[in-house]
């Protein structure tokens, strides 16, 4: 669902359990000497590793059940297949496709250079309505790129699902809107950060710095050697 919309009790429960799982698995990292630099060039004091969810069968199953239930409620019969984004999105797409009883494909980051659908693995019928799945989104540009690749291969892509949405880069909403994409996520940084104080997950000093980052991610990035400008467009390679 869009992070700006009012969330239902079921969505709030899913968000809380996702945040709890990430913290219980120590999947939320804080930088020590050097900040994290994302593929987009943004610098950040924190990094969320949703791939840790893959290794905990109980938590993974619970969150995939939440995802499938919420997607059924929100999308109904609007999708014909589930498309995983290489590489972290592939296992989550598999589990969701299994629960929704839908075909599954995956989209590569780059075309392999042969075949009709050079970036797509699996059987993609023309005009298939695809749900794009990945582990998380920061500024959203890689999701837009994957959606455009699927569209170039003949798919209809209107919805993107991620386990975790940073939901701090205002330009990402504009990017999704510009390309006609609806973002659905189980949890955001607000859900995670609201739990960290009670768990003493961050030191007071780190918590203060993270709060500063969440309030002005661009400013924090520039001050720590990262990008300070949102790219003008998305290039499909």
Write the layout of secondary structure elements.
Layout: H1 9-24, E1 28-30, E2 36-37, E3 43-44, E4 46-48, H2 57-75, E5 81-85, H3 89-100, E6 104-107, E7 120-121, E8 129-137, H4 141-152, E9 156-165, H5 170-178, E10 182-188, H6 189-199, H7 204-215, H8 217-223
Parallel strand pairs: 5-6, 5-8, 8-9, 9-10
Antiparallel strand pairs: 1-4, 2-3, 6-7
Helix pairs in contact: 1-2, 1-6, 2-3, 7-8
Low-confidence stretches: none
Judged by helices, strands and strand pairing, the structural class is: alpha/beta
The best one-word shape is globular
The string of secondary-structure elements, in order, is: HEEEEHEHEEEHEHEHHH
The total of beta strands comes to 10
Mean pLDDT comes to 91
Q: Tell me the fraction of residues in β-strands, as a range.
A: 15-25%
The helix fraction, in percent, is: 40-55%
Structure annotation, total helices: 8
Radius of gyration: 18 Å
Architecture overview:
The protein has 237 residues and is an alpha/beta fold. Helices cover 41% and strands 20% of the residues. Helix 1 crosses helix 6. The protein is globular, with a radius of gyration of 18 Å. The model has no long low-confidence stretch (mean pLDDT 91).
Question: Which key features would you list for this structure?
Answer:
alpha/beta, two-stranded antiparallel sheet, six-stranded mixed sheet, 8 helices
Q: Briefly, what is this?
A:
By secondary structure, the chain is α/β, with parallel strands linked by helices. The protein has helices at residues 9-24, 57-75, 89-100, 141-152, 170-178, 189-199, 204-215, 217-223; strands at 28-30, 36-37, 43-44, 46-48, 81-85, 104-107, 120-121, 129-137, 156-165, 182-188. The protein is globular and about 55 Å long.
């Amino acid at each position: 669902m869009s992070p700006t919309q009012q969330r239902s009790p079921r969505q709030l429960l899913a968000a809380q359990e996702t945040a709890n799982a990430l913290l219980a698995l120590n999947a939320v990292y804080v930088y020590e000497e050097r900040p994290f630099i994302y593929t987009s060039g943004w610098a950040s004091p924190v990094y969320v590793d949703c791939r840790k969810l893959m290794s905990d069968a109980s938590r993974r199953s619970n969150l995939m059940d939440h995802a499938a239930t919420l997607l059924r409620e929100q999308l109904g019969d609007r999708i014909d297949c589930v498309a995983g984004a290489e590489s972290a999105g592939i296992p989550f797409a598999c589990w969701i496709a299994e629960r929704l009883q839908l075909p599954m494909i995956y989209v590569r980051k780059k075309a392999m250079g042969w075949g009709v659908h050079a970036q797509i693995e699996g059987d993609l019928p023309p005009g298939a309505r695809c749900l794009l799945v990945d582990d998380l989104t920061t500024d959203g540009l890689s999701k837009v790129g994957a959606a455009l690749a699927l569209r170039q291969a003949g798919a209809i892509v209107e919805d993107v699902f991620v386990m975790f949405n940073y939901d701090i880069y205002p330009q990402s909403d504009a990017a999704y809107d510009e390309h006609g994409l609806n973002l659905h996520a189980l949890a955001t940084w607000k859900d995670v950060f609201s739990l960290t104080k009670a768990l003493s997950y961050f030191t007071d000093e780190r918590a203060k710095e993270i709060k500063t980052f969440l309030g002005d991610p661009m400013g924090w990035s520039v001050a720590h050697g990262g990008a300070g400008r949102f790219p003008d467009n998305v290039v499909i390679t």
